[in-house]
Amino acid sequence: MNYWIRLVTGHGVFAHSCYNFLISFSDPAGLHRRYMYIKDILFRYGFGHVWTNQTVHDMKLFLEIVKVRLRDCPVQS
């Protein structure tokens, strides 16, 4: 998840450009399993808008919220 956030936020310029190319010109079936796994997690736990918008404003805050939700949802089930 950390790596994906760095790709989306543009911390590595070359990697960010390659990722954007992959997302814009590839059908979902052509995405690497790693990105499909992240997409699945985001949609399953209520963060689909983050995947759709491909943006994270505060990386640390977002990761903390995701960790809490990943821990709490199975407990609630």
Task: Provide a concise account of the structure shown.
By secondary structure, this protein is mostly helical. Helices cover 74% and strands 0% of the residues. Helix 1 packs across helix 2.
Poorly predicted sequence stretches spanning 5 or more consecutive residues: none
Please tell me what the overall shape is: globular
Number of helices: 5
Helix content: over 70%
The SS-based structural class is: mainly alpha
Integer count of domains: 1
Mean pLDDT: 84
The total strand number stands at 0
**Fraction of residues in β-strands:** under 5%
The biggest sheet amounts to: none
Q: What's the SSE pattern?
A: HHHHH
**Through-space gap between termini:** 23 Å
Using only CA atoms, what is the Rg? 13 Å
Question: What can you tell me about this protein's structure?
Answer:
The structure is a single chain. The chain has 77 residues and is mainly α. The protein has one domain. The chain is built from five helices and no strands. The protein has helices at residues 2-9, 13-25, 33-44, 48-53, 59-76. Helix 1 packs across helix 2. The chain is globular and about 40 Å long. The relative contact order is 0.14. The mean pLDDT is 84.
Features:
5 helices, 77 residues, mainly alpha
What layout of secondary structure does this protein have?
Layout lengths: L1 H8 L3 H13 L7 H12 L3 H6 L5 H18 L1
Helix pairs in contact: 1-2
